[in-house]
Q: What sequence folds into this?
């Protein structure tokens, strides 16, 4: 039969992964309710294993058997886009929960956002660094994409390696942030929204980084060429998606969500200039014009706070 | 066996494709732009943001007084790990359990260990 | 013209007037805001300042009794979420 489609062979993976995915939520509920973690671990392990084996088969069908012709590639691209669309919906739900709770904060949390007793992270410290790291990784993955399309193998390898490092650095910074937050996932609606949204984003970065690492080894083994690199394309789209989600998280949760109790821009300006230029001699700074401005503004700030 | 052979063919095709493109003069134009954007613009900006985050901004503030707000430290059922009152990312200095800060954690401010 | 009896009745069955800040059917925030305002007013003006009592009149009408009990307990523990 001559037709341009890829009719896949019989495979055990769809059925098996259904079982293993099903055992993940069941295992999670079992862990929470009866402290037995074995089914959860089994579910996570088998899901990871079967995913690996299934995608290994896809790589074989593509690279070694050559089933991914132009039309199949088109179908795959549509599939990837639809998958990313479903991920958008997934995160949309968390943003909905967040804005529902923060735009009209309930009386139980003091009718303000962030809730009474919640001390947020400082948006212009590590979260801003995280933002710049992810944006930079967006630049480097574009550099990789262009390198692959130009057939510049060495440049592509270098850029991909750097992109992966940036992804891992982001995860490291997030871990550092998580271990120094003044609130936890059990601190009411703020903790729930914050950790659900940023935690799921973090796991998506981990998955995206794994995807990029797979692409790195496939690139190393010459699986990609100038006009056939669907695997990389999917990883790059996914990476951009994760990047964009972070921008929304940063602007809405870290930045806007901390207006009530964050350091203001004034604090940032005065503090950083003071430490940067006058670190060694504080009294000199206080006597300077800038120092005077900061002090006067501080006084107004105190007065303003008292009227509240 | 068949995989192996097919792989070798694919590998040769790929290498040929990479090799042939390396000869073209058009090679390296737009990827160079992006690589330069990365090294010349991106990296220094991230470096500045890094410096701001870790050297300019105040680090490790004092922890707030513990207040037993009913909307915080919610423990409808114990966590399945430990004593059931400590979260997964529990910070001895900054995080309180439902009973308040851990005993003897007043002096654990990370700022005191770094500087 | 209202008769004297009608005026007496109106005073007896007084209900909080419409508050433009809380136009919705759900009056939770109205109740809560008046509770906070009452204790804030007392804090700023002293407990004998008569005009503060208006807030109390409103929130005792609007709030379910057990909410007020809960909030009173929370204030006693210093754990009330509102800014007083």
A:
């Amino acid at each position: 039969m001559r037709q341009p489609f890829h009719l896949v062979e019989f495979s055990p993976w769809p059925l098996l992964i259904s079982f293993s995915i099903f055992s993940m939520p069941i295992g999670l509920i079992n862990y929470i309710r009866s402290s037995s973690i074995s089914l959860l671990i089994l579910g996570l392990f088998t899901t990871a294993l079967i995913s690996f084996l299934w995608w290994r088969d896809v790589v074989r069908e593509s690279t070694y058997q050559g089933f991914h012709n132009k039309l199949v590639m088109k179908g795959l691209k549509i599939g990837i886009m639809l998958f990313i669309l479903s991920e958008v919906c997934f995160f949309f739900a968390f943003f909905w929960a967040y804005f529902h709770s923060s735009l009209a904060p309930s009386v139980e949390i003091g009718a303000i956002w962030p809730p009474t007793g919640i001390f947020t992270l400082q948006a212009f410290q590590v979260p801003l660094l995280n933002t710049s790291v992810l944006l930079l990784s967006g630049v480097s993955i574009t550099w990789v994409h262009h390198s692959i399309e130009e057939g510049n193998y060495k440049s592509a390898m270098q850029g991909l390696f750097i992109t992966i490092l940036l992804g891992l650095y982001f995860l490291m910074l997030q871990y550092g942030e998580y271990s120094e937050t003044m609130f936890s996932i059990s601190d009411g609606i703020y903790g729930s929204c914050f950790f659900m949204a940023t935690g799921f984003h973090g796991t998506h970065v981990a998955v995206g980084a794994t995807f990029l690492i797979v692409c790195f080894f496939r690139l190393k083994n010459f699986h990609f060429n100038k006009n056939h690199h669907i695997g990389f394309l999917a990883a790059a789209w996914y990476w951009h998606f994760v990047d964009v989600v972070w921008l929304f998280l940063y602007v809405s949760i870290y930045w806007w969500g901390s207006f009530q109790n964050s350091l203001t821009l004034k604090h940032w300006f005065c503090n950083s200039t003071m430490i940067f230029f006058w670190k060694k001699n504080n009294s000199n700074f206080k006597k300077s014009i800038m120092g005077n401005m900061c002090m006067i503004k501080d006084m107004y700030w105190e007065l303003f706070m008292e009227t509240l | 066996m068949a995989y192996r052979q097919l792989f070798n063919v694919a590998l040769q095709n790929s290498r040929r494709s990479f090799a042939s493109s390396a000869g073209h003069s058009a090679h390296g134009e737009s990827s160079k732009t992006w690589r330069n954007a990365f090294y010349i613009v991106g990296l220094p900006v991230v470096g500045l943001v890094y410096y701001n985050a870790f050297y300019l901004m105040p680090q490790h503030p004092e922890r707030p007084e513990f207040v037993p707000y009913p909307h915080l430290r919610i423990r409808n059922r114990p966590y399945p790990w430990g004593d059931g009152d400590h979260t997964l990312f529990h910070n001895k200095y900054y995080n309180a359990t439902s009973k308040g800060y851990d005993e003897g954690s007043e002096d654990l401010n990370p700022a005191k260990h770094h500087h | 013209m209202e008769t004297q009896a009608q005026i007496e009745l109106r005073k007896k069955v007084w209900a909080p007037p419409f508050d433009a800040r809380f136009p919705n059917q759900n009056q939770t925030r109205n109740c809560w805001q008046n509770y906070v305002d009452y204790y804030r007013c007392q804090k700023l003006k002293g407990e004998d300042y008569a005009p503060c009592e208006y807030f109390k009149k409103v929130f005792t009408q609007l709030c379910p009794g057990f909410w007020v009990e809960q909030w009173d307990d929370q204030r006693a523990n210093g754990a009330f979420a509102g800014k007083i």
About this structure: Chain A has two domains: 1-67, 70-263. Residues 304-308 of chain A have pLDDT under 50 and may be disordered.
